[in-house]
């Protein structure tokens, strides 16, 4: 019989991978925590003595060998930096840190993560250059770095990422040329380089990426010949707002001249017939068996399920309502229309109003010297007409006593107009608006034309150059917004803030009608709200829901939009596909609507995993708001939950449309 000496036992114990790696990873996680969350506000569940694989560390998921596989901390309000220590998590396959306020540079040490397949750092405040070493991360399938302040050039080393499927670098400050090596990416489907400062020509090689379906280079300073082969992408290719692109097969571009041929990128031979097949020579990665797969990363179904549950826990954790500390963005971009040096006679109105211009007397205050004269838009059939003076007196010169709320980009004041009607005046700093003044005015005018009993009516708007603000005048809703009716504890407000069952049902019906109206294209263009949440649903005196801010997000500057998205992600209203597609659709509104319905029924802002399970199993006692004291209709609750669950399906195609929702709601039970 083998006799084991204590020393041998101790050695075996210590070398046993789970124990050793586990200990190492906890200390790495503590380092990561200190860097991501320097004030220890959001990652308090990560503790030195805890077990990261038990599900108790928020956002951490382990594989079956108890090594950290995913870190999912999107929309968590993190204000620190991406730590070099991250390279200590050798089995990390997904790093999801998007929609936070992270600053600093992307550490080049990250490149030692050979297992990493998804890197999401989008919508943060990262600076510096993209480390070229990322080009060595052979497992990468998704690189999402959009909406940061990254500068420098796009590393040509990215061309060796054979598995890369998505490369999204839009809304940064990247300069230089588009590396021709990106054409070597045989798996690349989505390449978004829009809103950067890229120059030079589009490499012909790009068209060699055979799987490419989406290629966006809008708003750069590119010039010269656009490869004809890109035509195959159809609407998947966006190239507006560049310096001087040319190409015969693209209708909106000027034809190329001989000069364009001489201007071509010297590295790029000009081939007049780019359809000739160029031999594709994709460097095959050496037969590297990644460290983790070799030793202990194969998937066993049982433990994969644990992983999935952990992932669900993570997603649910992301649903947790976090009070967001608004971070003030210092806006540097000075927009043309607001600059003080502008000639005083500059004026613009609605270009498109085709003869109706007398009905729309909308103009920016043309003279800085008399800021009180403020042009105003009113509907043509309205007898009301306002100016800045009236708005000032309605709000008592924007007195604090009338302040209803303040957000990062606006302040809302209660006001009473001369005709004694109550209004809410939303003051939006002009620096928060999109730069294009014509689009902005046109957009607001469209919003004033929306009329539905479940939309907060935008009566009109007025922009004063003198004050540097726009004022959006809405009907006033006296009962606050729906978020004030959540998480009501027994206490002083319990009576005023618990909605009875019939009110909840009629509020849900009203919201559904309002969203369906927005989505419909009868008598108006179809619109997407983009930012549905409990806070955006106001309640009037008769407890009708009024959806506010419909379509407004589209008119605001990018950084305002990004910060709204961070909040929406943290509150759980963001549809999962938005993160990969970056596009709002009707289905993303439907998702947010579903979340709202679940919140109204449960009375809780935080839809925990347990709460969702209770909804799916129709365990009404566990799911329906206890403040109702059981006074609700089970059949109605069953129907509403069924609808809501179909709206929050992970797969957008499986979700109902708002039309379906309305139909389902009217089915009597
Ligand atoms: C990029 O930005 C950093 C500051 O964030 C600056 O120090 C650096 O010089 C910039 N690099 C380039 C190439 O512009
Ligand atoms: C995009 O380019 C157009 C035209 O040059 C410009 O008007 C617009 O402001 C740009 N948008 C952004 C966000 O830079
Ligand atoms: C390339 O274009 C030429 C002339 O336009 C045409 O004859 C040829 O069939 C095309 N080749 C391919 C592979 O499409
Ligand atoms: C990590 O995240 C990916 C993508 O969401 C998922 O497919 C995978 O199962 C996750 N792994 C674990 C161990 O949770
Ligand atoms: C982004 O970083 C810059 C400099 O690092 C800082 O001045 C700015 O306030 C930050 N903005 C946000 C939204 O965190």
UniProtKB/TrEMBL annotation:
Molecular-function GO terms, alphabetical: ATP binding; protein kinase activity
Main subcellular location: membrane
GO cellular component, one term: membrane
SUPFAM superfamilies linked: L domain-like, Protein kinase-like (PK-like)
Annotated InterPro entries: Kinase-like_dom_sf, Leu-rich_rpt, LRR_dom_sf, LRR_N_plant-typ, PRK1-6/SRF4-like, Prot_kinase_dom, Ser-Thr/Tyr_kinase_cat_dom
Sequence ranges assigned to domain Protein kinase in this UniProt record: 398-667
A matching Pfam family: PK_Tyr_Ser-Thr
Keyword annotations from UniProtKB, A to Z: Leucine-rich repeat, Membrane, Repeat, Signal, Transmembrane, Transmembrane helix
Coiled coil: none
Signal peptide location: 1-22
Segments crossing the lipid bilayer: 306-329
Localization: Membrane
PANTHER family listed in its UniProt record: LEUCINE-RICH REPEAT RECEPTOR-LIKE PROTEIN KINASE PXC1 (PTHR48007), OS01G0577600 PROTEIN (PTHR48007:SF65)
Name of this chain's protein: Protein kinase domain-containing protein
Organism of derivation: Lactuca sativa (Garden lettuce)
């Amino acid at each position: 019989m083998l006799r084991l000496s204590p020393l041998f036992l101790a050695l075996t114990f210590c070398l046993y991978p789970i124990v050793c790696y586990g200990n190492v990873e906890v200390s790495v996680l503590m380092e990561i925590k200190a860097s991501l969350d320097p004030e220890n506000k959001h990652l308090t569940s990560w503790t030195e003595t805890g077990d990261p694989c038990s599900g108790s560390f928020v956002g951490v998921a382990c594989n079956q060998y108890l090594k950290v596989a995913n870190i999912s901390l999107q929309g968590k309000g993190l204000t620190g930096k991406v730590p070099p220590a991250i390279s200590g998590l050798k089995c990390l396959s997904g790093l999801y840190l998007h929609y936070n306020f992270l600053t600093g540079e992307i550490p080049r040490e990250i490149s030692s993560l050979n297992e990493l397949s998804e890197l999401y750092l989008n919508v943060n405040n990262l600076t510096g250059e993209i480390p070229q070493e990322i080009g060595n991360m052979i497992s990468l399938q998704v690189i999402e770095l959009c909406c940061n302040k990254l500068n420098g050039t796009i590393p040509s080393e990215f061309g060796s990422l054979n598995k890369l499927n998505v490369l999204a670098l839009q809304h940064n400050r990247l300069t230089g040329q588009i590396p021709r090596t990106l054409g070597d990416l045989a798996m690349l489907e989505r390449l978004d380089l829009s809103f950067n400062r890229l120059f030079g020509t589009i490499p012909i090689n790009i068209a060699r990426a055979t799987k490419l379906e989406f290629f966006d280079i809008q708003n750069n300073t590119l010039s010269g010949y656009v490869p004809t082969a890109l035509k195959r992408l159809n609407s998947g290719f966006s190239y507006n707002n560049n310096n001087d692109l040319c190409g015969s097969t693209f209708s909106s571009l000027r034809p190329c001249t001989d000069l364009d041929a001489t201007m071509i990128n010297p590295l790029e031979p000009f081939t007049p017939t780019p359809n000739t097949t160029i031999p594709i020579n994709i460097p095959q990665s050496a037969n590297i068996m990644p460290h983790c797969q070799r030793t202990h990363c194969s998937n066993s179904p049982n433990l994969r399920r644990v992983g999935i549950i952990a992932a669900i826990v993570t997603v649910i954790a992301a649903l947790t309502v976090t009070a967001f500390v608004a971070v003030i963005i210092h806006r540097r971009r000075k927009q043309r229309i607001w600059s003080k040096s502008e000639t005083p006679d500059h004026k613009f109105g609605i270009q498109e109003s085709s003869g109706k211009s007398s009905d729309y007397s909308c103009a920016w205050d043309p003279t800085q010297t008399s800021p009180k004269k403020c042009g105003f838009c009113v509907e043509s059939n309205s007898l009301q007409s306002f100016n800045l003076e009236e708005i000032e007196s309605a709000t008592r010169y924007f007195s604090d006593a009338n302040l209803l709320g303040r957000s990062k980009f606006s302040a809302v004041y209660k006001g009473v107009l001369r005709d004694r009607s109550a209004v809410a005046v939303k003051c939006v700093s002009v620096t928060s608006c999109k730069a294009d003044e014509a689009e902005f005015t046109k957009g607001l005018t469209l919003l004033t034309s929306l009329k539905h009993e479940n939309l907060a009516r935008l009566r009109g708007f007025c922009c004063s150059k003198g004050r540097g603000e726009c004022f959006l005048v809405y009907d006033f809703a006296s009962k606050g917004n729906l978020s004030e009716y959540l998480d009501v504890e027994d206490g002083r407000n319990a009576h005023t803030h618990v909605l009875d069952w019939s009110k909840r049902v009629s509020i849900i019906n009203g919201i559904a009608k309002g969203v369906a109206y927005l989505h419909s294209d009868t008598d108006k263009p179809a619109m997407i709200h983009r930012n549905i949440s409990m806070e955006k649903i106001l309640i009037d005196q008769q407890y009708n829901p009024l959806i506010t801010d419909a379509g407004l997000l589209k008119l605001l500057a990018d950084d305002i939009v990004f910060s709204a998205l961070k909040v929406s992600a943290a509150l759980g209203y963001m549809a999962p596909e938005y993160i990969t597609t970056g596009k709002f659709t009707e289905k993303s509104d439907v998702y947010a609507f579903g979340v709202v319905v679940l919140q109204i029924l449960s009375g809780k802002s935080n839809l925990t995993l347990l709460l969702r399970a209770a909804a799916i199993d129709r365990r009404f006692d566990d799911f329906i708001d206890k403040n109702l004291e059981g006074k609700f209709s089970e059949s109605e609750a069953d129907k509403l939950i069924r609808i809501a669950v179909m709206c929050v399906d992970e797969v957008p195609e499986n979700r109902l449309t708002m039309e379906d929702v309305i139909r389902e709601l009217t089915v009597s039970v």
